[in-house]
Amino acid sequence: MTSTERPPSVDRLARSIADIGLPHPMLVEAARAAIAAGEPDSARTVADSMARRMLRPVINGTGTLLHTNLGRAPMAWSQAEHYTNLELDLDTGERGSRMDTAPALIAKACGAEAAIVVNNCAAAVLLALAGIADGQGVVVSRGELVEIGGGFRVPEVMARSGAHLIEVGTTNRTRLADFERAVDEHGDDVGLVLRVHQSNYRIVGFTEAPRTAELAGLAPPLLADIGSGLLDSRCPWLDGGPPGWLADEPAARQTLEAGADLVTFSGDKLFGGPQAGIIAGRAELVARCARHPLARALRPGSLVLAALQETALAYLRDDGRAIPFWRMATLGVDELRGRAEALGAGTVVEVASTPGGGTLPGVEIPSAGVAVDGDQRARLRERDRPVIARVVDDRTVVDLRTVHPDDDAEVAAALAADPGD
Ligand SMILES: *Cc1c(COP(=O)(O)O)cnc(C)c1O
Predict the structure, then answer these.
(1) Which ligand 1 atom lies nearest to the CA of residue 122?
(2) Cα–Cα dist 289/263, whole Å
(3) How many angstroms separate the CA atoms of 216 and 398, rounded?
């Protein structure tokens, strides 16, 4: 464009790319940006990239079952336009509680007296600390003052909750006696004993930590932040029982049975539901959390509660197949290899899936997939249904464990497409 030409009208330029389907104000923004850059013709490219940034379905070929960048646990959930009895007791016609629905089912599924649901596990820990130990001390092992992904740091959450930290032991070794001494020393100032699962890392070698049952014997209530949301270590929802790779992952039911008064966990890690945080345990303590003013600020809406209800019902029916995470996690390698062979694209390869989501570090689940030469990730991401792949040894690999079988044909088409297209 020479300086004597008038810039095209922003509005006219925006209308000329209306077929992209974005609302007019977004097209205007794209047109303005293109004109400001001195390249009005780039308006379409700018608008296209705006459209691509919107939330959309992607095909997870990474083999990471709970992929933080891809929304952790996948779920099939849609809802028609309707009201729900979110806070209406249909028997009495009086106001009901949203915590009588999914939270009550989750409590039943993990053997807790009661449960309350908030927006994520970070919120669950915050609310539990605030609800039970506001203004009091919370005793924690120095080996458990962890940071979980996304900036969740136990000491910082503690500070925000109004409780204060009483650190005991050392990074690698903390004994029951360390906790006992702190509880004796601080007396009534201790509101809680907290145990935090080292979800995304392990300290190995010269280590020691008291068992949950030992900590439960101390006078203050015990809160166990187990994080991952494994409901029951026996996995009664799986025909074959617990897979070997679950190893020592703490489970809600067994942690409560061992004497923890409250457990907190995520809805979208090994629980396999929507993003949510659950506090489950003794009814009186759960009620204290529910009464805290933060509970109102952290409560989920009916969409999340309805999706959680579906997941909880699947657990109560022992139906792991209805929970996408567990269905995918337990697929046999032979079945996956069969699907890889049937794709007819790339080379069939043995790969290793991982649970992901900051759970079970180092765990690998044998899997199968297909590989093509070179790094094709960018090209695969450009598709209408982006395929997210990994690069291993200079080859682009799609692990079929995390791909829905209905998407196999799409993966085949993506891999077969001429890279020059
Ligand atoms: C993942 C995790 C959290 C944070 O959970 P979000 O649902 O991501 O907020 C807290 N504590 C532990 C032990 C975790 O593993």
Answers:
(1) 9
(2) 12
(3) 45
Residue 374 vs residues 116, 118, 386, 398, 403: alpha-carbon distances, Å: 49, 44, 18, 13, 21
- Express each pLDDT in 271-326 by its tens digit: 999 999 999 999 999 999 999 999 999 999 999 999 999 999 999 999 999 999 99
Taking only the tens place, the pLDDT of each residue in 59-92 is 999 999 999 999 999 998 888 899 999 999 999 9
**Ligand 1, from 126, 145, 225, 308: best to mutate by most atoms within 8 Å of Cβ?**
225
State pTM to two decimals: 0.94
Distance between CA atoms of residues 121 and 42, nearest Å: 43
pLDDT of residue 359: 85
At 421 the pLDDT is: 47
Q: Tokens 């379905």 appear where?
A: 57
CA 139 – CA 193 distance, rounded (Å) = 5
Q: Could you give the percent of the chain with pLDDT greater than 90? A: 89
pLDDT digits (tens, 9 = 90+) for 83-117: 999 999 999 999 999 998 999 999 999 999 999 99
Structure confidence at residue 77 (pLDDT): 81
Q: For position 174, what pLDDT does the model report?
A: 96
Strands (E) across 216-301 are located at 222-227, 262-266, 277-281
Asked if 133 and 191 touch (Cβ cutoff 8 Å), the reply is yes
**Residue closest by Cα to atom 2 of ligand 1:** 227
Tokens 């690069």 locate to: 391
Concatenated DSSP letters of 84-113: --TTB-TTTSSB--GGGSHHHHHHHHHT-S
| Euclidean distance between CA atoms 165 and 176, whole angstroms | 17
Report DSSP state, residue 244: G
Q: Ligand 1 atom 15: the closest Cα is on which residue?
A: 227
Cα 125 to averaged position of ligand 1 atoms, centre (Å):
9
Q: Which atom of ligand 1 is nearest to the CA of 225?
A: 13
Ligand 1 probe mutation, 72, 118, 127, 152, most atoms within 8 A of CB: 152
